[in-house]
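Hey forum,

I'm writing up a methods section and want to include a predicted complex as supplementary material. The small molecule is NAP. I've pasted the protein sequence and the SMILES. Can someone with a working setup run it? I'll credit the forum in the acknowledgements.
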Amino acid sequence: MNTTGLAVLGSTGSIGRQTLDVVRSNPGRFHIAALSARANVALLLEQINEFQPELAVVGDETAAAELRQAVGGRLRVESGRGGLCAAASLEGVHTVVDAVVGFEGLFPALAAISSGKDLALANKESLAAGGPLLREALAHSSSELFPVDSEHSSIYQCLNRRGRPESVRRVFLTASGGPFLHLPLEQFADVRPEDAIRHPRWNMGPKISVDSATLMNKGLEVIEASMLFQLPGEKIHVLIHPESVVHGLVEYDEGTQLAALFSTDMRVPIAYALKCASSSGSAVSLSSGVSFLDLAAQGTLHFFAPDMKRFPALALCYQALEEGGTAPAVLNAANEIAVENFLHRQLPFSAIVQVVERTLQVHEVRKIKCIEDVISTDAEARACASKLCEEYVSEIV
Ligand SMILES: NC(=O)c1ccc[n+]([C@@H]2O[C@H](COP(=O)([O-])OP(=O)(O)OC[C@H]3O[C@@H](n4cnc5c(N)ncnc54)[C@H](OP(=O)(O)O)[C@@H]3O)[C@@H](O)[C@H]2O)c1
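Reply by user p_vandermeer:
Happy to help. Structure tokens for the complex are below, copy them as they are.
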């Protein structure tokens, strides 16, 4: 059997490390052609020694110099956005796993599509900021996009079973509700970064953990679902499901709901995306290395509607999706800035959504025609949100 060449971007992060676990669980199925990290050179070096890629990418030239010295000419080392795009379009790569966190993930996603690579996309910020561009690029490419996010993987799998579109009445994204599902609203102001990143169900990177605590993550996923499955916001619903066993559902006109269930472990949707990408439609099996779900042991499952008052981020995401154009990119950029400030203890938890809301209020929505539009919108929104964070701090000091 031929091995499938992978570029794993963001390989030192939560999704990146779990992708490499799936590769380990399937010896002889994949070879790693490229790996990337931003600053964690020590872990990247361990991964290089184990997987022997031909290209490694780091965030900047300082980290690149450190890595070049450590690898001593054994492989090519690149940095920054250009490096990520080089890895995403490298000859010998069949599938790009985009597990970079944040806006920067958009660029290798576009590069992968324009060079005809399959894309296993975990990076949801790219779909929020540049969804229309990714769709347009896919329409002109032989590349296929396979969602890695558990909810979107589930919906993708359900849609594949029954086929789609006209008869799809609604899709449902489930949400665990995060660590503050039952926290009284008046205590939100006192939440510390270490509380917010302690997710009850998933072990994830810090940014997505904070997004899960505000429910911004679920809102970004609503935008992601709209871009991936070309559905309007009113057909995309969120269900709080604390056990995180059912990940996504599709409801058809006659009343059937199809759901995908699996253990709370991202290696399952990662393995599914890699299986789809590497099999070109043929029935091959791939192990996720995850224990199978035991529903009898699980017993009871709960579902309820989200509390939009305590979690206003969700409503804000629906609003940005409805406004369209540059609005989702502004929301995404403002959120990245506000979360970063919160993680550095420079903004209260409860102000994250306020900063995003005020950034959206002052923005005049425009159409996105090209990548330059997205880049300038992102920069504008970041500058505005940073200023709002500073003002917020000076107001409360
Ligand atoms: N974790 C999950 O369970 C999960 C589930 C669904 C979707 N996702 C999505 O998957 C993406 C990754 O999430 P994660 O939890 O794996 O994040 P993470 O643990 O923070 O890892 C992020 C990875 O991206 C690298 N990185 C960070 N900033 C970068 C930049 N500016 N340029 C290039 N590389 C950069 C990091 O390198 P360093 O290690 O050197 O900093 C790391 O390898 C996010 O978009 C998230 O929303 C995650």
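Some notes you might quote in the supplement: Residues 93 and 158 are 28 Å apart (CA to CA). The pocket of NAP is lined by residues 10-16, 37-40, 59, 99-102, 104, 122-125, 149, 202, 204-205, 207-208, 266 (CB under 6 Å).
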